[in-house]
Design goal:
By secondary structure, the chain is α/β, with parallel strands linked by helices. The protein is 34% helix and 27% strand. It has seven helices and 13 strands. The site of S-adenosylmethionine has 18 residues, from helix 7.
């Protein structure tokens, strides 16, 4: 059955209202009709089995026939804090990390970030990235969509760190602590952040600032991975060791 997203406000009692691009896709692209059955996801982890009732002026109204709670979300909540790489690599990162099970993505501008964006472009990028997360969630049948936050500056990120937050910084110059051994002693963690640099990596001062906030630097091994590979590799390892991957 085809899957569509609505905001929680789109569910009213036994009725569902699908609007905007999701309604357009349902009606104009997939040509679904009254009487067809679909799955509706409201982003809270619930999945609704819905029968399309009426289609009028871009609004699809449906009747809820059943509701289930999704079992596809990970117990450990992982936030990916990613230094924005050049080109469209961020799109790949968002798509693949959504499939793997990331909970939240925070795009950051660091000292060595090359990309320059004015406020208008930042907003458009965020909207595009959020849409990519939604499409990837649909494709992998998740019932939640990872939040892609606004693009923030390094200082904003540092100031947002809470006391006691579990923050793992992927750093190619870390020689003693590997992610694998770090995770093996952790085992029970409800949430954590993975912080990845852009192409140029983190500056020594950024590493010091993160460590001062209690973050731990870890290595992914002897080879230098591209910015877009490092996050995927680290997330895979975390969800394998502490989550439901594998
Ligand atoms: N500037 C670095 C250099 O040229 O040596 C490489 C930076 S790397 C392309 C981009 C990011 O991926 C790094 O900031 C780091 O977060 C992560 N990364 C890549 N390889 C890694 C490794 N072996 N261990 C830990 N992190 C790694």
């Amino acid at each position: 059955m085809r899957r569509f997203f609505v905001s929680p406000q789109g569910i009213e009692g036994e009725k569902v209202y699908i609007t905007g691009s999701e309604a357009h896709h349902l009606v104009e692209v997939l040509r679904l009709k009254e009487g067809d059955q679909v799955i509706i996801i409201d982003g809270t982890g619930l999945e609704y089995e819905v029968r399309i009732n009426t289609i009028t002026e871009g609004i699809v109204k449906g009747d809820i026939k059943g509701v289930t709670s999704s079992t596809r979300d990970t117990s450990v909540k992982v936030t990916l804090v990613q230094g924005i790489p050049k080109g469209d690599k961020m799109e790949l990162i968002i798509q693949k990390c959504t499939e793997l099970g990331v909970t939240k993505i925070i795009p950051i501008l660091t000292e060595r970030t090359v990309v320059k964006l004015d406020n208008d472009k930042k907003k458009k990028r965020q909207e595009r990235w959020q849409k990519i997360a939604q499409e990837a969630s649909k494709q992998c049948k998740r019932a939640t969509v990872p939040e892609v936050t606004e693009i923030i500056k390094w200082e904003q990120y540092l100031n947002s760190i809470d006391d006691g937050e579990e923050i793992i910084v992927l750093w190619e110059d870390e020689l003693t602590r590997g992610l694998k051994s770090y995770l093996q002693v952790k085992k029970k963690l409800g949430s954590l952040s993975l912080v990845i640099g852009p192409e140029g990596g983190f500056s020594p001062s950024e590493i010091t600032q993160l460590r001062n906030k209690g973050a731990k630097t870890v290595s992914l091994g002897p080879r230098i991975l591209r910015a877009e590979t490092a996050g995927l590799a680290a997330l895979t390892m975390v969800l394998y060791e502490l989550g439901d991957l594998g």
